[in-house]
Amino acid sequence: MASPPSLLSKTFSVLVSGFVVLNCFAVDKFGSHAQVITPLLPVDEVQILQNISNKLNISNWAPINQTSCNSTQWKHTIDSKTQSIVTCNCTFENDSVCHVTNISVKGFNLNGVLPDELGDLPHLLEIDLTRNYINGTIPPRLAQLPNLKILSLIVNRLTGPIPPEIGNITTLEELVLDDNLLGGPLPPDLGKLTSLRRLVLSSNNFTGTIPETLGNLKNLTEFMIDGSELSGKIPEFIGNWRNIVKLDLQGTSMEGPIPSNISLLTSLKSLRISDLNGSSSPFPNLQAMKSLENLILRNCLITASIPDYIANMTSLNFLFLNNNLLTGEVPKWALNNRQKVDLSYNNFTWSALEGSALGSCQQPKQDKNFVSSHLSNNNTDDWCFTKGLPCTQNLEYRSLFINCGGGSAPFNGDTYERDSNDGGRVSFSFLPGKWGYSSTGTYMENTSVQTSIAKNDFNLGVTGVYETARLAPQSLKYYALCLPKGKYKVQLHFAEIMYSNDQTFSSLGRRIFDISIQGITLWKNFNIMERAGGVGIGIIEVFDNIIVNDGTLEIHLYWAGKGTTFVPYRGVHGPLISAITVTPKFKNGSGLSVGAVIGIVAASCVLAALFLLLLRSKGYLGGKELVDKGGTEGISISLV
């Protein structure tokens, strides 16, 4: 009697639409199908996913059922930044049960709230809801996820603090929350996340100091808290982060000096620190950082000279040390190498070498900025490298009208001059003896965004000088040159034209910068959109009675690290301005005020009238008959 055909179990795994689909079936030795087994989502997980979809307002997940892992409905990709992908693992219980492991919905402008139910999917490895319009708070229930590795919520409207419970997700490797509205102190519980590699908290409203417990995060490769209100000293425990590659402390309220044990961070590729409070300090010891690519230490109260070992950092691409107290001579290597260098606004001393190596004001070196970096200079051809940008010609009386980022244009009865040169990363441009600008910084996170001209990409209803604008990643200074001594009225025209006017992530940008005139900060944390009441609305900020004593009027727009950096895409931040108007408060070239001029004219008129009355009383103007007695000669009056 023939034995019955034996069954050979076989499993085929197919990767469809970004998730694993498993069709299990049995075949006999002759190849005929005996049974088909389709792995299924548990019923309770189906309901959880439905609740998540409803709360986030996800439109492309429906219908959700037990066979959703085996269909293409959970893969929807427009491009690398806009995708909705749900991934399943269907190997549970002999390949018969599926569980959701990854939820990634990026760039779909989801406008719901962050659901608590995400914490009820115990097999989740990743939650990525980048670039949406989600509000609410971070649910403490996420701490129930025993395997979560990635939590990324970049660019949303999330508020409230980071729940301390997040510190219980000990498997977490990436916590990325930049460009939200989160606030409050950082919970010390984050120090329990010893598997954490990336902690990115940029562009939020966190306060207080960095908890000492974060010194336990010895696996960190990336730590970014730029654009927050965190304060206190830069902690010594950063020396524990021996694996760190990127450290960004720009735009906080922290104090220096930079700890000496920063020298232990030999894996660093990007070091960015700015706007430190406190006392001055010497240049930090970075000699062991052989892999350093980006070095930004701006406005950090650094004194002394630039160390020679910087010349041996062959990987260095960007060296921005502007707005410090650096002294000595500019190193020869900084003048001639391929790096993008910004040493503007320091206290260097002049040397014969630099006279030719720096270039000239007419033809500055490409990707180098040495504007106002030297204490003094006798060479009139290189006036722009000297502190204060001294005038080298006669002072002239004029008004100034600049259409920043645009062509020549009539506006409000005046003609605004063309300013449409796209200067690039670091640049200085000027019209001799009239006006100029200095632009510094680079959009390091997005090498394709290097323009210094902003355009109305969202078709906002702006007109005139507001249709375009000039912007800079870090610092933008305009100079009115060779002005007579006196008081001036400065009007700065702004309109936010780089964010959208709708309920999408492109509308969530916050452009924040400081406004200084003549070295005095007149507005901290200026926000165009907040001030104007929305995007695409032109406003004029008026600063009256600005005093010019030495011929140069300086207008400084400065990004201190605040605001968003990922809206509408990575690398949009920094000051932006539409137009500049400068008009004198006096009516002649003497620099006298209007009141003084009126007083002088009035007094002159009174004296002239008295003199004429005196002449008339003597009969010289017909008041008396003149009689020549004894041959007296007539009197001649000459007015020269």
TrEMBL record:
Q: Name one Pfam family in it.
A: LRR_1
In short, the EC number is 2.7.11.1
Would the keyword Transferase turn up in this protein's UniProt record?
yes
Reactions catalysed: L-seryl-[protein] + ATP = O-phospho-L-seryl-[protein] + ADP + H(+); L-threonyl-[protein] + ATP = O-phospho-L-threonyl-[protein] + ADP + H(+)
Q: Where are the transmembrane segments?
A: 592-615
Domain Malectin residue range list: 400-580
Q: Which UniProt keywords apply?
A: ATP-binding, Glycoprotein, Kinase, Membrane, Nucleotide-binding, Phosphoprotein, Receptor, Serine/threonine-protein kinase, Signal, Transferase, Transmembrane, Transmembrane helix
Q: Which residues form the signal peptide?
A: 1-26
GO terms for molecular function, please? ATP binding; protein serine/threonine kinase activity
Instruction: From the Swiss-Prot or TrEMBL record, give the protein name.
Output: non-specific serine/threonine protein kinase
